[in-house]
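Input:
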Amino acid sequence: MLSKKTKYGLKALTFIARTGSDVPVQVGEIAKGEHIPQKFLESILLTLRKAGILGSKKGKHGGYYLRKDPSEILMTEVMRVLEGPIAMVPCVSLNFYEKCDDCPDEDSCSVNKLMIQVRDSTLEVFKNTSLKDLSER
Amino acid sequence: MLSKKTKYGLKALTFIARTGSDVPVQVGEIAKGEHIPQKFLESILLTLRKAGILGSKKGKHGGYYLRKDPSEILMTEVMRVLEGPIAMVPCVSLNFYEKCDDCPDEDSCSVNKLMIQVRDSTLEVFKNTSLKDLSER
DNA sequence: GCAAACCCTACTAAATCGATAGGATTAATA
DNA sequence: TATTAATCCTATCGATTTAGTAGGGTTTGC
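Output:
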């Protein structure tokens, strides 16, 4: 299941991208427009800023803005920041690999093989979808 | 993330399929062979039996067996029984659909569109993989 | 200097996960 | 028929994660 954090984060990014300008967008505005609890959204946008996807401006007329062109912000990056590993099991994760404690041999593990296929097909979708694509729908 | 329940369930099914016979396989045997806590595995196999994927025989020399040929047991079915919805959000789930409380309009929701793509590509993998495929690896 | 915005830490209620415990029931067999 | 070995079933539990909330601190524009 996709966490609310990720879902809200994607909606917020789309919201910002859709304004189409470099003027910072305020948290309150996004929260209202997308029906997201403001305080929760604050922490999500903070995560996205720390990851380098968003920039921020403090004080009056402050807010958040995109640090790259929407077409250059890929879902692989966004999903990894918000949701963590794309793979369904750590033992097939490219960026967050971890060995299973059960399972002495990955090569003979049927789950491993299946989950590699799922990972690759999901990755294909995320790799080929940018924030620009999201915001144009 | 894939739950341990699902992971263990898949391994157990693979184990049973690999015996290649109709003789019931005991829980203890599977637990030992796949390094799964026996009591936990018991409850998982019970779930699979109630879903009609496994059959069971009680008493001495009892155990679990497949109710269909491995080639007819598809990952779509197994995953839905063990893990629940294949979709990452309920609003794009085919078998467990639910409307989002935020999000007034699904058609204009960027998350919705993205998750439909992910669902379809994952579904494609599960639809084309049977227990026979798993057990032959 | 004050109001409006982001920044940061800590806390919490609820749900889920990964088991474990303890026995009830059933079936083969000696 | 008694024993034993297996599945069946319910309940409980500690740890973790999730989805927030609370309460300010800090910075900036006017």
